[in-house]
Write a structure and sequence with these properties.
By secondary structure, the chain is of the alpha+beta class. Helices cover about 25% and strands about 40% of the residues. It has a five-stranded antiparallel beta sheet with strand order 1-2-3-4-5, with helices on one face. Strand 4 and strand 5 form a beta hairpin. Helix 1 packs antiparallel against helix 2. The chain starts with a helix and ends with a strand.
Length: about 100
């Protein structure tokens, strides 16, 4: 697997996902490149997918949080992060944020 090409493809999907109001495009890209969901698959505010080979790891993280306060209801904030690691060192990183549209 060419991790740099996969990174570029997923990063492009992430950027499109932020303008199309959803992480579905990014989710399809990570599935296409064989990243595997980590953890117990229970609903969470943070979900991580990874694929590793030959000392490299491609990691995609989707997290969301609610910025609302008393008397101020606000849309959730979504953060999509993609990292390419060589061992423990991050060699490439990209992050996109967007608000849910209701």
């Amino acid at each position: 697997m060419d991790f740099n090409s996969a990174f570029d493809d997923i990063a492009a999907a992430m950027e499109k996902a932020t303008t199309s109001e959803g992480h579905d495009l990014a989710s399809k890209a990570i599935e296409r490149h064989g990243l595997i969901e980590q953890g117990d698959r229970k609903p969470s505010q943070i979900t991580v997918w990874e694929k590793s080979a030959n000392g490299q790891t491609l990691r995609f993280t989707w997290r969301w949080y609610d910025p609302s306060q008393a008397f101020s209801i606000r849309p959730d904030i979504n953060v999509l992060t993609l990292e390419l690691l060589a061992g423990d060192k991050i060699v490439r990183r990209e992050e996109h944020r967007y608000e849910d549209k209701y």
